[in-house]
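Summary for the steering committee. One of the milestones for this cycle was to obtain a three-dimensional model of the protein with glycine bound, which we needed before selecting residues for the alanine scan. The sequence and ligand used are listed below.
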Amino acid sequence: VREFQLPRPAQRDSATRIVIGKSARQQLAQLVDDTFGGAPWALCADGHVLQLWYDDLAVEPPLGFFPLPPGEAAKSFAVVESLLEEFTRVGVGRDACIVTLGGGAAGDAAGLAAALHLRGIATANVPTSLLSMVDASLGGKCAVNLATGKNLAGTFWNPALVVIDPDFLETLAEVEFRSGLGEIAKYALGFSQPLADSLQQGVGDLAAVIETCVGIKADIVIADPYETSGTRARLNLGHTTAHALEAWAADDEVLVPHGLAVGLGLRVACNLALEEGRLSQDEHSSANALLDRHQLPATLSDLIAKPPPAAELTPFLGRDKKIIAGELRVVLPNGIGASEVTTIDASRFAQAIANC
Ligand code: GLY
């Protein structure tokens, strides 16, 4: 028996260039050319978004358009597989770049396909939902859903370019806008007291709020790019509840908007934090006031008309990735604007969801 050490090459990802601003989309072709040195590119887009913005965008991707099923339906191996087959048919080469246009689901499916195509080609993200602008388009997480849970099969594949244009929000459905506010509330309650204070008054300057959230996410991703130290895991505040409810509802083919489920998850996390003395009564009231202000679900039945009992939820918590040695790893707020990864008994957590 002989043993060798083969140094593992560093991840290929280098910096992500982030461009934010109204009308930034009008520079898309130029930004792609600049960033990728004139490489050929294809646009993989949520079909619904593409229909709405095709004329306005007026781009001619050299490798063409690849429409994706709208929303969460894009996040399946079947969609990724047919994208990969299309890439091969069209001759998308190693030097090419995949530009994704749409919400988080489009970025997940097309990003995962790009990560797999010829063992990985470059990507750029153009998020069109509020949720994707503040979270999903940044940091490289790409995954599809399995019958056993959300986002269970995927990789980190960081985009080289992200172009965030708040003008896309003009055509975003109201429920999707509120869904984005769920993720914004996560940043406020878990990471930034000043953002929480300002959101108590309303959204205010939306572009500035997006920029603040992008800044918070960028700092976290720089500190813990592959979610190994516990820092990035804090971005899952509200998500243990959200993923369990989304997976439970998916079994009945009911779609629960992700950010609204996160909003409810924030209530659950705040209730547990109050029980554990991590939030004072005043802080708990202030967190709930913020969530109320942005019309995020106040109770489980606001989110799901016929909510499940705790016993039905426990197995879905067990399917989540956040289990280590049988302990459910969750994120709870520690005061307003701070948060911490901790462990909790799964049935206690399920009961807290059911009681919400
Ligand atoms: N959306 C959570 C993360 O990117 O880690």
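Key point for the committee: The chain has a mean pLDDT of 93.
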